[in-house]
Amino acid sequence: MPDISSEKAAHQSPEGVAHKFGIVERRNFFAHTIREIALAILQTQHRHYQILTIMRDEITVTKTHFRESCCEIFVAPIPEDKNESRLRLTLAHELGHLIYNLEQLDEVTDSSKAHLEEEIWAWKFAYALAIVKSREHKTNKDIGKFVYDPRQLQAILLSHLKDKKPDVHEVLKDSTFAVFPD
User: What's the pTM?
Assistant: First the structure.
């Protein structure tokens, strides 16, 4: 179980936190990581907290609602002509909001009210988690479609942000994204 209790997650690097949560399971892209986050909440805050992911055609905007005992991550489906990696980045981004707010879950209502610093942190976390999980999957041919080239993933992320979050795109477009050793 990743140890994030010594320092508020939002004050740690998003890449470091993504690495802690991303290396826990090699067989599944995000499901086990989500369970690890719930376990971290149980162990650090002594409360059961469910993380629900909901994807329906009628959802048009991806966001996370924080509740007393759970968070609901509403994910807008990606059109078939779009790259599936965008969906994974979006889900990882919403998990980033959850981790960023880990110490104040009772005070946050939803991710749409996030300030710029939190948005940047969550997107950096999303990229880092996708890369960590991608590296974990390199040896598993069954889930090889979840292996991403870091530069390609960065381009997909920046393209998405340019359309959806221009202020975050402006900050991240010249950033150096984390590169983890193989």
Answer: 0.76
